Inverse folding.
């Protein structure tokens, strides 16, 4: 593995610091062989839960914890994230190995969990030149990514003990109602109200096409690849639940910026989905439909849902910055993206 392609952690931000000795004291009681207090570094990426690297002399571990400040009531459930990955590991190997979960908030001021570090690389905004990937290799990598999503959607949730992760049928309705409520609560004075979009989604919602285990934040920057460009692991299971697979696909493709998209969304691109070889959104929809047998004739609904959901996520994050819950400058201009996403919704709706 080329070292320059591996994500590196940096200094811990002052507002995100914790008592390292307290963590080591707790962790050393759960894991044998940990020597000395670890060197702690923080990964700068990730706009939700906070991720740190714990470096011991002979072992690298990862610690995940929720952020401070304003949080949605159902978000940042560390135990849920830990439990999902623990249950999946025996049947879906593309998750990190869980090490320990801490429910004692006196240790660092919140619950948290620790997992093994995956030694691979993550594709961000652009393909590193060092990889020397042509269109054929990128197409294969792209299809592997979609195949893993399809494989996840086939997991027997009863066999892995995760049947209580969701609420069963009615997922589409709950998502439209839930995201509408969350957006209204997180709205600030400098973003649109989305009322027309929410009314359209409510009026045009289909029945569930099925209920399965969904990741709910599936994109390239949550996927770790190995030296052979195969999927090694999938990260960030915070929002995993039992839900409608086409709702997941709609949310995933919201992040999928392709070469012919407008200039504004090109600036927002976080994945190398625009380069020759990558499938287009239409090709992915067709590929997924043929592989699963699920109908996609009502795709406009899933497209608008995905865009609106992203607007809700971004606005929740911006609200934390707006209210002083975080001073991370990455959130400063998120309100502008929310306005753009309303326009995208209305374009798709034909409004």
């Amino acid at each position: 593995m080329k070292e320059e392609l591996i994500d590196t952690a940096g200094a811990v931000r002052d507002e995100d610091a914790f008592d390292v000795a307290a963590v080591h004291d707790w962790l050393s009681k759960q894991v044998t062989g940990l020597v000395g207090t670890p060197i702690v570094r923080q990964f700068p990426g990730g706009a939700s839960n906070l991720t740190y690297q714990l470096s011991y002399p002979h072992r690298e571990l990862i610690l995940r914890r929720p952020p401070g400040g304003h949080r949605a009531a159902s978000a940042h459930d560390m135990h849920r994230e830990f439990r999902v990955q623990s249950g999946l590991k025996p049947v879906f190997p593309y998750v990190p190995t869980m090490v320990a979960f801490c429910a004692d908030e006196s240790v660092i001021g919140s619950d948290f969990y620790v997992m093994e570090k995956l030694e691979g690389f993550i594709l961000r905004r652009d393909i590193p030149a060092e990889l020397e990937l042509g269109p054929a290799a990128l197409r294969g990598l792209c299809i592997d990514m979609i195949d893993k999503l399809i494989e996840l959607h086939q997991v027997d949730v009863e066999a892995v003990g995760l049947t209580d992760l969701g609420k069963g049928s009615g997922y589409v309705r709950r998502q439209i109602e839930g995201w509408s409520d969350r957006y209204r609560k997180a709205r600030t004075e400098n973003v649109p109200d989305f009322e027309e979009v929410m009314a359209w989604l409510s009026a045009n919602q289909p029945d569930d096409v099925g209920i399965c285990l969904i990741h709910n934040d599936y994109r390239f920057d949550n996927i770790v690849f190995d030296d052979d460009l195969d999927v090694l692991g999938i990260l960030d299971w915070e929002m995993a639940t039992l839900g409608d697979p086409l709702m997941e696909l709609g949310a995933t493709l919201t992040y999928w910026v392709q070469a012919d998209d407008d200039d504004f969304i090109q600036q927002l691109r976080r994945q190398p989905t625009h380069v020759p070889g990558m499938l287009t959104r239409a090709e992915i929809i067709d590929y997924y439909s043929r592989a699963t047998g699920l109908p996609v004739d009502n795709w406009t609904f899933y497209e608008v849902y995905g865009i609106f959901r992203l607007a809700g996520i971004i606005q929740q994050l911006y609200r934390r910055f707006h209210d002083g819950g975080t001073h991370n400058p990455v959130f400063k201009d998120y309100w502008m993206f929310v306005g753009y996403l309303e326009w995208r919704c209305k374009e798709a709706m034909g409004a």
